[in-house]
Amino acid sequence: MLRISWTAKKTNDTVLEEAHTTRLLISKIRKRQATFFGHVMRRERLENLVTTGMLEGKRSRGKQREKLIEGLTDWLKAGKSLEAIEATKDRKKWRTMIANAVKQGT
C-alpha cells in the first residue's frame, strides 16, 4: 500500500506515521476482556470466583501469573480491584469506564 521495500531500514513507528494510523490491537483486546469480565462479574456463578481468584486451595510454585482483574484495573485506572468489581454491578458505569480507557488509548 505504501510501496515500502522490505529491505528499507524503517521502523514500525515511522511506517505507522506515514500511514497516518495507530496501533489498535491491544486496545481492542483489552476492551473485549473488560466487557467479558463485566459479563462474568454480573453473574453470581463459578466463573465469578475463578476470575477474582477467590478459590480455596494452594497456590502453584514459581512466579505467580498476573490475574485478569489486576491487568484490567491497571488499564482502566480504577485504583483497587475491589472498585472495578463494584463498578461491574452497574452496567452503565462499567461501560463508561471502558469507553474512557479506550479513548485514552492505553
Beta strand count: 0
Gross morphology:
elongated
Secondary structure class reads mainly alpha
Unreliable residue runs: none
Number of helices, counting only DSSP H or I runs of 4 residues or more: 6
Q: Which range does the strand content fall in? A: under 5%
Main β-sheet: number of strands, strand sense, barrel status? none
Q: What do the pLDDT scores average to?
A: 81
Instruction: State the helicity in percent bands.
Output: 55-70%
The end-to-end distance, rounded to whole angstroms, is 27 Å
State the oligomer.
single chain
**Rg estimate, integer Å:** 19 Å
- Compressed to H and E, one letter per element, the order equals HHHHHH
Helix and strand layout, with pairings?
Layout: H1 12-18, H2 25-42, H3 46-52, H4 68-76, H5 81-89, H6 91-104
Helix pairs in contact: 2-4, 2-6
Features:
single chain; elongated; Endonuclease-reverse transcriptase; endonuclease; hydrolase; endonuclease activity; 0% strand; 60% helix; nuclease; mainly alpha; 106 residues
